[in-house]
Design a protein that fits this description.
The chain is built from 13 helices and seven strands. The protein has 355 residues and is mainly α. The longest helix has 31 residues. The radius of gyration is 31 Å and the shape is elongated. The chain starts with a helix and ends with a strand.
Length: 355
Amino acid sequence: MIRKLSFALLGAALLAALALGVIAWKVYAALEQPLQVAEQRTLEVQPGDTPSGVFQRLEREGTLSGSFWLRLHWRLRLSGQTLHSGEYQLRPDMTARDLIGLWQRGEVVQHTLTIVEGWNFRQVRAALEALPTIQQTLAGVSDDEVMARLGHSGVHPEGRFFPDTYSFTRGVADTELLQRAFSRLEAVLDEEWQTRSEGLPYMDPYHALIMASIIEKETGVPAERGEIAGVFVRRLQRGMLLQTDPTVIYGMGERYQGRITRNDLRRPTPYNTYTNTGLPPTPIAMVGREAIHAALHPAEGQSLYFVARGDGSHVFSDSLSEHNRAVREYQLKRRADYRSSPPPRQAPAPIENIQ
């Protein structure tokens, strides 16, 4: 009797071991199977999706097989693992195990928004609206309402968003990206303001930001930022008109069609620094750290004037007579490729990366 019981237990153990072996083999085969993906594509996991549901969806699509064994593997080995929502990149060389690894590490596809130095707020909004991967909530909303939704009611939007490349996952709201850029600008401006040079003609950091935006629009050669800042600071200190074309252009708005005339320089607008003393009322563009630093650390010197050579760089002069000679040389005898201001800067093509 004891011998029969022993044989029965042994048989049951062997059957159990065999069953476990079959299960282990089935799970292993399911994990190591190559995904049926002909070319790189994305798998979108929505908030609330479960691994079981995604495995079954992929099996219905024919991307993989044996979803039961993959679900069993996740339940037994990864039950405490969170499945992050987002987009996952599927490649022809991947296995089901590789896909699960992406889920474990949360390696979702990152999209990017680039805000370019010198852009105005209209261009920033256009860049946001052109992104199909974000949640659009600001269509048809006024600039004032945009700032109110960001929690900054009454704040003028120009110059308030830091130029940089911002990574995000599909479905992020446009307001979230703007808030990140706004907060970044405030942080950079505060950092630079704390180390500013003495004796500057600014009442507060906002005035420095306005100056930085003018420097940003005037500068085609980065090494000249400090010298251009020095000219404008000395003119402010002496009560001279700034007389900078980018402010006139900004004040023209939609009327600007690529050139300004003498009448434009005489036409009064709040931004015409040929007719108004001091700084314009707001920034005229988005500014990078280098322009902010230059506004707060202007180069020393005596120059009060500068004129564009036509290649993006400038000739600086201490006196009006020197300046007039430079004007005659570089503006009255213009080359065919003459530029009085830096060439427009475009955002780089959007990129995707995994993070």
